[in-house]
Structure formats: C-alpha cells, structure tokens
Specification:
This protein is an alpha/beta fold. It is 35% helix and 22% strand.
C-alpha cells in the first residue's frame, strides 16, 4: 500500500460496501499507489465530455505526473476514494486541504477542495452521491469542516449532486465557473436525504431479488429429488411469469432440457440476461458459480447451499469470502443456508423455495431467519382450520438463513412502501444491527404494523451462522426499546400469527374498551378475565344464551358496535346443537353483515371446537358483494392470484380457538394503536440556555488526552455535569473523625455520613449510611458505629454530605451500547426495584414526551404521584434532569456511561447525591455516518 514516508497508515476502516440507486452494489475504498494501472484504465473509459467537465479543458489522457498525484495520498490533507465493481474503478473522488488563500495547506486549515469523476456507463446510479457521503465522513474525521467545489455551469448533474445533498451551502458564480461551498456538519435535511436514498437503494436491491425477469437454478439434478431439482419444480409449478433456466455442469452433451425447462451446463451458456440465480450446489463449488454469475451480469443470488458459518470457523471464513466475492460483482445474496423466497404477485408468481406449495396470496409480508420456522409460519397462514383461519395470505416471503448479506433490515426497507404488503411478520433469531433495525422499525410501524418474535433470546449467544454485534443489554431492555419503536413484540409463533391476522383483517381500535357477547356465559367470563389480565377495559359480558339465533347475534353485535363506549367487540360462540354447517354459515353471515355496517371497530370471534364457523366466517367475508374487482377462488392445484385490496366496509373476521389468544392479539392491537397516535406527535428535544456544549467538548477533549478511556473523578464529574445544568451535591471525604467534623462544619448541619466502599455503596439496607446528623456529637457517634461494624476508615471510604430534602430515591443511567446505541434508563433506587427489574428505557435523544412517558413506565411510578396519600414529588424537575442527561450523551459520543444515584426527588426540586461518568474515544463510524452494508 502506501510508502513508509506517508503520514498515516492505510485507513482500512474507510473501506465499505454500498448499495447504489438501482439496487446493485459497489465497493468504496481509499486509492493507493498500487492503483496506477486501474486509474489509467478507468480514465480511458471516460468520455471526452466528462473529462472536460472534470478538468475544464480537453484532457484526453493522464500524464505520469497526474497518475502520481492521484494515487499518492497522505490520508489527511490529500485523500482519494474509488468506487469499484469487479476490482475495477467506476468512479473516483478526492479532496485537497486548502488554506484561506486557496493554496494547499495542513491542519488547522479546515477547508478542502473536492472533485469527482464517474464513468459514463455508471452515471445515474447514485455513485457520486454515495461517494460524497463517504468523502465527507473522511474529511470530518480529519478535521475538515467545509468543502469547496468548482463546477462548469453545463455540468448540471454534478451541481445537482451537491445541491441535493442537504448540507448548508453558499453558491457563487465567477469567471464562468460555479463555486459551491458547504459545511460538512450533518443537518436534519442532509440526514433525511441520506436516509431516503438508503431506503430507495436497499428496497430496490431486494425488489430485484423478489421480482426477477429471469431465473437460473444452478445445481438442478438430472433426476427428480434433491434441493436444486425440487426448487426448479416449485418455481415452474407456481407459474413463474419470467424465463426459467436449469443449470447442471454434469449435463450430457446435447441435452437441452431438464424437467421441461431449458437446461445448460453453465450460466455463461444462457442466451440473454439472468436476473436471479438460485444456487444449490455443494459449498466447495459455489465460488465457481459466483464467478460465472458475476461475469454473466446476474443481479442477485439465493444460496440454498449449507456448509458455511453454521458449520464452524472454517465455514464462517467461507461465508465471508462468499459475500466479498458476490459483492465484487455488484450482486446481493440471500443466504447461505437459506430456505428461499416467495412472491405471490400475479405479475411474478415466484416460489423459489423449498416450500412444496405456493402459499395463499394475501397482504402479509413474512420474514424468517430459520427455514423450519418459515415452514411452520407458511403452514399456519395457509391452513383454514385448527386455529386462526380465513383467506388471509402472504404477499412476499423471505427466509434469509445465515443472512450473510440481505437481512431483516433490507427487507423492511422493501416492505415499507410495498403497496402489496399491509402487515409485516418477522421471526428473528438475532439482530445484526439493532440500532438501524430500531430506526427502520419506527418508520415502518408508523405506516403499517410490524410484529416480531425473537428466538434464542435466552441462549446468551447468537445461533450458529449469525454474525451479530455484541450487546451488554439484557433481552428485556432490547425488547423495551423495540416496543418504543412501535414494534409489536410477541413471544411465540402462535402469537405472531394471531396478532398478524387480526391486524391484516381488522381496523385498529380507538381504545381499550371491549364489549363481549355470545351464547356461553362461561366463555364470556373467561374472555372478561383475559381482558383484565391484558390491561383492557371489558364491559360486563352479554349472555345471549344457548338458544340465540344468528339474528340475535347480528342484532347484539350491531348494538355493541354502535355503542360509543365500546372500541372493540369479542364475540364468543359455542356450537348450536343440530344446526351443523348451515347454522355455522348463517351465523358467520350475520356477524359479517353487522361488522360491515360499522367498519371502524374491530371484531374478533372466539369459537370452541367449531371449525365450520371459522371457515364460514372467511367464506362469508370473501364472497360477500364488494365494490371493486373480484377474484375467482381457484382450486389448490391452480396458480393463485392476489386479491384486490378489500374496499372500505368489507371485513375478514378472525376466529380464535381460545379466549386468551383472541384477547392477547387485541391487546397488542390496542397498544400499537396508542403508539401510532403518540408517534404522530413525538415531542421535541428541548434547548436549554444554560447548557455549555462547547465548554463540555473542550473539557472532554482534555480529559481524553490522558488515555483511551477513563472513569472521571468526583471533581471532574461535577464539572462536566455542571456544564449541562446538572448539579451534584458535594460529598467531602472523611478519612478521620476530625475530618468528618470539619467537613460537616463546611457544609452545614444536618449532614449524612456514608460509606462509599464498592461493597457498601448505594446499599442503605446494609447500614452503611447515617442520616440527619444534627451536630458533631451525633456525627462522631455515627462514625464510631460505622467503623465498628464495617472496619477501618480506609476500607469504608466515608464521606460527609449535606442532607437533601426528603423525597423518593431514584436512579438515572445512560449507556452507549455497541449494538443498540445510546440508551437512557430510569427506575427507583433500592433492592426491591433491582430485584423486580423495574427499570424503563428510551433511546437517546429523548424528547419531552418520551421523558414524561419514561417516568410513568415503571411499575412503581405511583410512588412518585402520591400513592396512599403521600405527597407527590416534582416530576417536572425529574423530566428536565432526564432530558439534560440525554442531551449530554447525544451531544458528546465520548460520554459512554453516566450514572446518577441516588437522585432524591422532593415535592419541590430534586437532589443528585451521587454521580459517575465514563469517557472513551468516540466510534469512528456510527449510524449517523455514510451508508454502508454490514461486514462481518
């Protein structure tokens, strides 16, 4: 790489794989002296017009001096990045640091000139925009705060790259050249632009996999059976609308067909483009297949082959090489060790999976990391009896296997604006990037329900084959953060399907008030109890008696839905003796007609051993007259088509075999609806005039200059927190009784005497604290008691602190988790809260509304609001403290941990009696940095 004389070593952390605007991938890396030939070859493929726009004059070829200049960088004042595909350059960008005179300079100069060159064949793919994000991040890392660029007025594409980036900029025109100057500090607009580009690019990369125009199944056996041949048959039988090819390198000469499909010995032999390759060959042969596919221009791979990271360290390295190999050709991968993908759209009809039957089409997007769980989910959604039933099916299905490349995050990007998907169900065994997942989940949940069940959550480690970032947060905390982002978290596959089908068929409830009616008093009471257990507000069940007719049900349901004090209705039903299927159909039609008259309220049915009613509910709903296109029900053997979205007023009523399952699904819908209402007004991060952000940054910089990471001393902690308006009560050391008396006189009586040894700190229950010491005599007596009980003063580390007003003891913490990001936590102090795990969490930055809800989220919150006649404490002051801690950690990523304990919240004001802060160098790149694909 670079020569020894260069100022910095090769910055490998600048290397990144990225998704471009059209869904293809490229690699971005620093340019080095080894790239001379690549640079010359790249430049020869650029048009004369593009060269003119770059150099403002005809410039047919690069001189030796140019090549030297453009490949020799110090990675500080002169930096060049290249975007590559297949190892060859497709675009370059560079910056040169300049002074106020416009001449080359070094730090502390904080401005640089930037220039791009993109190969004509790759213009319009978003390459320059992506390179701008990365070169800006590099510049900020090197202390550059502003870019300048000179562009010819006719070069409108490059001007648009700069102006659309969202940075604060100035524009001028002089000597026939447009000069653009822009600050590199991310703005709300630049981050929004970056996120929108990320979503479009990643969604298109998944769309290319799920809606290919042509497919090659590589590894299709010559005889029936085997993975490759089975998938080939599944694609064919599903009625795939594109071109299908079979590839088997052992195919005899002259054989041009396999299972009724055109067959070839190599992907290279296929005449015409191939969009997707399904790979089902042994792992040792996959690299050869990837090369063939890459050279043929295949856009993506579904790798069913096993023998990768799930098999051990050697397989993990094989998996890393597979990803590197595929991305070098601009291809994305689902898998390896994948179950496959499904798209029920009538324009695609793709079943490139091991599922022997195409699932019923519908509007549920389904993602599973496990093939076995994927089979179970598809089966449950497809069944019409034995639980939740009805004509509700799948829009698209992805089983990612080891998810070496395409992950749940990518598929969420696709489903976010997919018009064919109304509800998203995900089974996750691990989350590779929880911070990004939470961000995407929050945006997706604001548009459509997202239901998640996490497997392996108590195993302590990710499943074999899954590379994930280490997290120090317990599973309960991660779950709480997901719920904060609008994710509907459930614990089992059954609950996943129950909640998903309710959300796919019914409107969201306006509140927790539930009407219960049915022909069984006992079943009604069970439902009532289940509602109370789930935090709902049930009305007294209406017993229609076992003699109730379908008309009785219809009238009762109509009355309940018309009641303004009711937000949802649960109908309970037991078999009507002697009626049979005709009675079931009549009851189903009665319920459907009543529900259709009031479409804004959800209706659920609890049935006991009544499969006929469950089926009838679906049939009644799906065959009722509808305003709009109707789809003829097709036999199971026929290719199915996706039904048109149901018009307003039509209802698919979900039926459940147990009251607790129906109520639990309804409770999740109620909580999600409440989150949607609150998400519409998330609040704001307030500004405080007394915050000294710049002073805090200078203090942190000086402290970190001492070492890589450190826990601050008492004085430093108080000074840093004071910059953010957080004042800690002074605690003076008392190594002797005389020192204790002197400290008390300095602070003023009454005082507290505390042991601060690690085993006694914050453990008032052990007796290491003496409070309300009114004079020196009481202080000396307390000092003697502590030393007699716990040992010498040097072991106790006693301190004296002025008494704070009485109140409720609380704890405020903030931590930077390597996976989840910055998290703010709150709870009451004491062993009881620790034992119960009664702590609430929010992602930083916290808004004013989130601070308010954080305080009220713990189970012991009533103690803050006057429980059993006590005086309510000053929760507004507590909210402000939480917001200030959030601002400190958000403004300064070097602050990796803050603990305030105890925080005594009094009826008026609060007192921070103890505090600790830990600093560490900030991460080089985080979720606010440029777009990148994960590397493991």
């Amino acid at each position: 790489m670079q020569s020894p004389s260069d100022r910095h070593e090769y910055p490998s952390h600048w290397e990144a794989d990225v998704v471009l605007r059209d869904g293809g991938t490229a690699r971005i890396r620093p340019i080095t002296i080894d790239d001379a030939e690549r640079l010359v070859s790249f430049y020869e493929q650029v048009s004369d017009e593009s060269k003119y726009y770059r150099f403002f004059a005809p410039y047919p070829r690069l001189s030796a001096k140019d090549v030297h200049r453009f490949t020799h960088h110090d990675f500080v004042d002169r930096v060049g990045l290249a975007a590559t595909i297949g190892g060859e350059f497709i675009a370059t960008v560079r910056y040169d640091r300049i002074g106020i005179d416009g001449l080359p300079a070094s730090a502390p100069a904080d401005e640089a000139e930037v220039a791009f060159l993109v190969q004509d064949a790759h213009q319009g793919r978003g390459v320059a925009s992506t390179l701008l994000e990365h070169i800006a991040a590099v510049a900020r890392e090197r202390g550059i705060r502003r870019f300048a660029a000179e562009v010819l007025p006719a070069n409108t594409k490059m001007i648009k790259v700069f102006t659309d980036a969202g940075y604060t900029q100035k524009r001028s025109f002089e000597d026939g050249v447009v000069r653009l100057e822009f600050d590199l500090e991310p703005t709300d607009r630049s981050l929004a632009v970056q996120r929108a580009r990320e979503q479009r690019a990643e969604a298109r990369s998944v769309r290319r996999l799920l809606a290919p125009g042509s497919i090659a199944v590589v590894g299709a056996g010559r005889t029936p059976g085997g993975v490759g041949r089975s998938v080939l048959g599944n694609i064919r039988e599903a009625g795939f609308t594109g071109r299908l090819h079979a590839v088997n390198r052992a195919l005899p000469e002259g054989q041009g067909e396999l299972g009724g499909v055109p067959a070839y010995r190599s992907v290279r032999d296929i005449d015409g483009p191939v969009d997707l390759a399904v790979v089902a060959v042994p792992a040792e042969h996959v690299p050869e297949v990837v090369t063939e596919c890459g050279e043929h221009g295949v856009q993506g791979l579904v790798v069913l082959s096993a023998g990768y990271a799930e098999s051990g360290p050697e397989g993990r390295e094989r998996q890393r090489e597979l990803v590197r190999h595929a991305r070098a050709y601009g291809m994305r991968i689902i898998g390896p060790n994948a179950f496959g993908i499904i798209n029920t759209s009538p324009e695609v009809r793709l079943n490139a999976s091991l599922a022997p039957q195409m699932p019923r089409p519908g509007r549920i997007g389904l993602f599973a990391q496990s093939g076995a769980i994927g089979i179970a989910l598809l089966s449950r959604l497809h069944r019409r009896g034995g639980g939740v039933t009805g004509v509700t099916g799948v829009s698209t299905f992805v089983s990612s296997g080891n998810r070496a490349d395409v992950s749940g995050n990518d598929v969420l990007q696709y489903w976010y604006d997919d018009p064919d998907t109304d509800v998203v169900l995900m089974y996750l065994e691990s989350i590779g990037n929880p911070r990004k997942f939470t961000r995407l989940a929050r945006r997706t949940a604001a548009a459509k329900p997202l239901v998640v069940v996490q497997g392996a959550r108590h195993g302590g480690a990710a499943p074999q084959g899954h590379a994930v970032r280490a997290t120090r947060l317990p599973h309960a905390t991660v779950s709480a953060l997901l719920r904060q982002a609008g994710v509907i978290r459930v614990d089992t596959i059954t609950e996943l399907v129950d909640a998903g089908l309710l959300l796919a068929r019914q409107p969201l409830p306006d509140g927790p008030r539930v009407a219960i009616l049915g022909n069984s008093e006992s079943l009604g009471l069970l439902t009532y109890d289940a509602c109370l257990a789930e935090g709902l507000r049930p009305q007294t069940p209406l017993d229609l008696t076992t003699a109730a007719s379908p008309e009785d049900f219809r009238e009762a349901l109509a009355r309940a839905l018309a009641d303004e004090t009711c937000d949802a209705v649960v109908v309970t039903a037991i078999p009507m003796v002697g009626e049979g299927s005709a009675g079931d159909a009549a009851l189903a039609e009665a319920l459907r007609s009543a529900a259709a008259a009031v479409p804004a309220k959800p209706v659920l049915v609890v049935h006991v051993e009544l499969g006929g009613l469950a089926d009838a509910l679906s049939v009644a709903a799906s065959t009722a007259p509808q305003a709009g296109p109707r789809v003829r029900p097709a036999p199971e053997s026929e290719v199915r088509t996706v039904p048109a979205p149901p018009p307003a007023g039509s209802h698919l009523i979900p039926a459940y075999p147990a009251a607790e399952r129906a109520v639990r699904a309804l409770a999740e819908a109620v909580k999600y609806a409440q989150w949607r209402r609150e998400a519409a007004d998330p609040g704001k991060v307030p500004e405080y005039d007394d915050i000294d952000e710049k002073g805090a940054a200078q203090l942190i910089g000086g402290l970190l200059a001492r070492g890589q990471g450190l826990t601050l001393g008492t004085e430093e902690t108080c000074e840093l927190l004071g910059r953010y308006g957080i004042h800690v009560h002074r605690a003076l050391p008392a190594p002797t009784p005389d020192d204790a008396a002197q400290a008390a006189r300095a602070l003023g009586y009454p005082v507290a005497l505390k042991a601060t040894a690690p085993h006694l700190r914050h453990r008032a229950d052990l007796g290491g604290v003496r409070l309300d010491l009114a004079d020196e005599e009481q202080l000396q007596r307390a000092y003697t008691e502590l030393t007699e009980l716990f040992g010498k003063p040097e072991e106790l580390r006693p301190v004296v602190q002025r008494m704070a007003p009485r109140g409720v003891d609380t704890v405020v913490r903030a931590v930077i988790d390597p996976a989840a990001g910055a998290v703010l936590s709150f709870g009451l102090a004491g062993a009881a809260s620790q034992l119960l795990g009664d702590t609430a969490h929010r992602l930083i930055p916290v808004t004013d509304r989130e601070a308010t809800s954080l305080i009220r989220s713990i189970r012991t919150a009533p103690l803050l609001f006057g429980w059993r006649g006590s005086t309510p404490v000053d929760t507004p002051a507590l909210e402000q403290l939480l917001l200030r801690v959030s601002r400190l950690v958000d403004d300064h990523p070097e602050v990796v941990a803050v603990t305030l304990e105890p925080v005594v919240v009094a009826p008026h004001g609060l007192s921070v009696l103890g505090a600790s802060v830990r600093l560490a160098p900030p991460p080089v790149r985080d979720d606010l940095g440029p777009r990148t694909l994960p590397t493991y």
